[in-house]
Amino acid sequence: MNASTPGKIIGPDAPAPVRKIIHVDMDAFFASVEQRDDPALRGKPVAVGGGHRGVVAAASYEARVFGVRSAMPSVTARRRCPDLLFVKPRFDAYREVSQQIRAIFADYTDHIEPLSLDEAYLDVSEDRHGLGSARAIAEAIRQRIRAETQLTASAGVSYCKFVAKLASDQNKPDGLCVIRPEQAQRYIASLPVGRFHGIGPKTAARLETLGILTGADLQSLSLEELTGRFGSSGEWYWRICRGIDERPVRSSRVAKSVSAERTFNEDYRSAEDLHRELDRVAGLAWERIARGQAAGRTVTLKVKYSDFRLISRSHSFVDPVADPATFTAAGHHLLDALLPVPLGVRLLGLGLSNLVERGGGGPLQLGLAI
């Protein structure tokens, strides 16, 4: 792709057509389904998940005002919002709505790449219904989602996946944002690097210590400077800050595992501390497992000690792990086998692998899951 003309892929003879990509993201999906189905929750701060030692799987916008976020320990969420209402997750209900949404997508394109139950990329370069523009298609999809599910979705429209995903977050909730190729570099320049998909909080903090706060700061650095500082990731930073993303929308993606991990601010040694933190990691991991509708037979515990030595222990089941309680219990069993720990522990991770299709024995195709 030419860096000066984002979105135009240069072929051997002539420029290829600019892709038209939509990123659709449901608004506070789990919490919104709960508020839809229980009128008593509407307009109130709601957290899905939680419990005494659990984590928040999703938070309503009313809860987010207080700083409640997904993956936050429920104790912290309660402290930030004393009136927070916790509800148990109903993944069957979320999957049912997700299937409704997927059916709507499929009416407009066959090129659908789900990222989770509540978001997906769509390539609508072919205008199947003759609506005239990708903006019109995105608006039609959002209107149908509202009419058929009584829920709202936000959408970003652009020529590549990276910019479309940025755009979908721009006018949340219930918003639409279109970024044209000629607008991309200026738009990216205006954003904090923490908004960029693929740059997590730790990487953003590292960039900020180097004085790289915005897309404009990234754009001011050469490819050589970025690769010198960040290795192979530097090339990716150089490309995305210029709006260069040639990844196609893939309608079928094979996942090998789903996991989560947590690095601690202090090293832990006691069994009580380690089991408490493992509960939190397990909650976050299961939320990802549920979002991807993953099913697997192997639970793997990952432990990094204070000397940075990394070990893993696994347990495989005959049948796929069916629920979060079994998943978490397997993690605690693996941890118990390592206690007492010889050194402090700086990181715990828990994951599910040996993935299969739900109700079958083949590899899990996450592209079919939404």
Automatic annotation (TrEMBL):
Binds 2 magnesium ions per subunit. The active site is at E119. GO terms for cellular component: cytosol. Residues 21-200 form the UmuC domain. The record marks F30 as: Substrate discrimination. It is found in: Cytoplasm. InterPro entries: DNA/RNA_pol_sf, DNA_pol_Y-fam_lit_finger_sf, DNA_pol_Y-fam_little_finger, DNA_polymerase-Y, DNApol_IV, IMS_HHH_1, Rev_trsase/Diguanyl_cyclase, UmuC. Mg(2+) binds at D25, D118. It catalyses: DNA(n) + a 2'-deoxyribonucleoside 5'-triphosphate = DNA(n+1) + diphosphate. Its cofactor is Mg(2+). Keywords: Cytoplasm, DNA damage, DNA repair, DNA replication, DNA-binding, DNA-directed DNA polymerase, Magnesium, Metal-binding, Mutator protein, Nucleotidyltransferase, Transferase. Its main location: cytoplasm. One of its GO terms (molecular function) is damaged DNA binding. Its EC number is 2.7.7.7. Transmembrane segments: none annotated. GO terms for biological process: DNA repair; DNA-templated DNA replication; error-prone translesion synthesis; SOS response. It holds the Pfam family IMS_C. It is an enzyme of class 2 (transferase). Belongs to the DNA polymerase type-Y family. Monomer. Poorly processive, error-prone DNA polymerase involved in untargeted mutagenesis. Copies undamaged DNA at stalled replication forks, which arise in vivo from mismatched or misaligned primer ends. These misaligned primers can be extended by PolIV. Exhibits no 3'-5' exonuclease (proofreading) activity. May be involved in translesional synthesis, in conjunction with the beta clamp from PolIII. This is DNA polymerase IV. It comes from Sphingomonas kaistensis. The gene is dinB.
